[in-house]
Design goal:
Layout (H helix, E strand, L loop, with lengths): L4 E2 L2 E3 L8 H13 L4 E2 L2 E3 L17 H9 L2 E7 L7 H7 L9 E8 L7 H13 L2 E3 L4 E3 L15 H28 L3
Parallel strand pairs: 1-3, 2-4, 2-5, 5-6, 6-7, 6-8
């Protein structure tokens, strides 16, 4: 058994000019720096899911393998009109068994002051239905358009690193516990 955890970061929007792209890169770097954790940055814009069907009928083998291999997931999700992007739901729905008993943490991104709390709230029941186990820490990124400089460097690094430390600590703990359960405890 590989002792490293695999926790990919998924950028959950396909829109042009998305402020959440810098957030995803920042979060990815924070995950990448964690000892004993492997990661990948997955941009759903680069995934080629058909739009003339849905669910497991459109399963992409590479994305499904990534989800099957994952011990946990980080979703970086912008809030659009108090909800999550439809394309993220379309992509997530393409897998089911790959998610069972795996940890997930959500980083909500918003232009306003609530840091994506409404997108997180609206996404929680969806993730539960998919079989994922949500952690109790959220990553909140308010005023996303002003969080980074023109080179993509976060401006208030200390605050966000401290928040991500708690978020990732919980996600990693939950990923380890759930992996142990998947490997050692039968249902």
């Amino acid at each position: 058994m590989n002792s490293s955890l695999f926790i990919p970061v998924i950028l959950g929007t396909v829109r042009k000019g998305r402020a959440s792209e810098n957030v995803a890169k920042f979060v990815f770097e924070q995950v990448r720096q964690r000892e004993g954790v492997e990661t990948a940055l997955v941009d759903i814009r680069e995934q080629k899911f058909p739009s003339d069907d849905a669910g497991e009928q459109i399963k992409d083998p590479a994305f499904s393998e990534l989800c099957a291999r994952a011990d946990g997931l980080v979703l970086v999700v912008p809030e659009y009109n108090h909800a999550y992007p439809g394309m993220l739901k379309h992509v997530l729905d393409s897998n089911l068994k790959e998610y069972i008993h795996k940890a997930v943490g959500i980083c909500g991104v918003s232009a306003g002051g609530f840091g994506g709390t409404r997108v997180i709230q609206s996404l929680l029941p969806v993730l539960r239905e998919l079989g994922l186990v949500t952690i109790f820490w959220d990553g909140n990124f308010s005023g996303a358009q002003n969080l980074f400089d023109s080179n993509g460097k976060i401006l208030d690094e200390a605050t966000h690193i401290k928040r991500m430390d708690k978020f990732l600590g919980e996600l990693i703990w939950m990923s380890k516990v759930l992996r142990y359960g998947r490997e050692n405890i039968s249902i």
